[in-house]
Amino acid sequence: GDVAVLVPAAGAGLRLGPGGPKALRLLAGEPLLVHAIRRVAAAPSVRAIVVAAPASDVQAVRELLAPVAAVTVVPGGAERQESVSLALAAVPPGIDIVLVHDAARALTPPQLIEAVAAAVRAGHPAVIPVLPVVDTIKEVGPGPELEVVLGTVDRAVLRSVQTPQGFRHDVLAAVHAAAADSLTDDAGLVEKAGLPVTCVPGSELALKITRPMDLILAEALLHVS
Ligand code: CTP
Ligand code: MG
């Protein structure tokens, strides 16, 4: 099965603070998107890469990535899900497996990308990388002044979810075509369609660079990734 990787990279990066679209923010002198694409291209199964870039930066992103890998760059949308749909529409013929991978997870190891693709190839229609939850998690509600605890969730059955998320091409196309409401991940659409979603072990290096502290952490992790 030939693998395509869709890379949503059109977000503003508001939580990272001022400094332009997150995918173009620098980590050790190179844009996050370059770090991400270099690792995607290093996964042996990957045959095609489609990047959804900020609409105003499409040409700049093409030029930026040309020396890194052969990529198709399309303008992204207002929501992540729309960016994924636009990238999905640009997948070349002959692709059986599609991975969706956030540019913000710029240090994701090629081995994790390969492991997700392998699990789809082995027969799982949808595959996500997960990590155990480390914090105690509580459900809260509004109180008279501050929030109050309603209960403690059993952490043992909870997982944090990363990308790349992998899908049979036909499954991802069907759930995206039918998507009515916006979700923060693509596997959520598959769940809603009643299909099984299978977990593989994630990687701490696949952290999503979201807040300023994550950039500091990522810079330190560059030495081990
Ligand atoms: N993304 C996208 N199109 C959007 C919104 C997000 O392609 N309209 C991408 C981001 O570029 C990122 C991934 O989806 O690679 C995960 O989103 P997130 O981490 O939330 O990034 P941003 O939306 O850029 O950040 P923020 O929510 O802080 O603005
Ligand atoms: Mg966002």
In short:
By secondary structure, this protein is α/β, with parallel strands linked by helices. It has seven helices and twelve strands. Strands 1, 4, 5, 6, 7, 10, 11 and 12 form an eight-stranded mixed sheet that branches. A two-stranded antiparallel ribbon has the order 2-3.
Question: What can you tell me about this protein's structure?
Answer:
The protein has 225 residues and is of the alpha/beta class. The chain is 29% helix and 24% strand. The protein is globular, with a radius of gyration of 18 Å. The longest helix is centred in the middle third of the chain and has 12 residues, at 110-121. It has seven helices and twelve strands. The protein has a single domain, classed as Alpha-Beta Complex (Spore Coat Polysaccharide Biosynthesis Protein SpsA, Chain A), CATH 3.90.550.10. Strand 2 (26-27) and strand 3 form a beta hairpin. Cytidine-5'-triphosphate binds at residues 8-15, 22-23, 52, 76-80, 83, 102-104, 208, 210. Cytidine-5'-triphosphate (CTP) binds at residues 8-15, 22-23, 52, 76-80, 83, 102-104, 208, 210. This is 2-C-methyl-D-erythritol 4-phosphate cytidylyltransferase. It catalyses: 2-C-methyl-D-erythritol 4-phosphate + CTP + H(+) = 4-CDP-2-C-methyl-D-erythritol + diphosphate.
Ends apart, CA distance between termini: 27 Å
Helicity, in percent? Answer: 25-40%
CATH class: Alpha Beta
Query: What are the distinct ligands in this entry?
Result: cytidine-5'-triphosphate, magnesium ion
Q: How many individual β-strands?
A: 12
The CATH homologous superfamily corresponds to: Spore Coat Polysaccharide Biosynthesis Protein SpsA, Chain A
CATH topology-level fold name = Spore Coat Polysaccharide Biosynthesis Protein SpsA, Chain A
When the domains are counted, the total is 1
The major pleated sheet works out as: 8 strands, mixed
| Beta strand % | 15-25%
Order of helices and strands: EEEHEHEHEHEEEEEHHEH
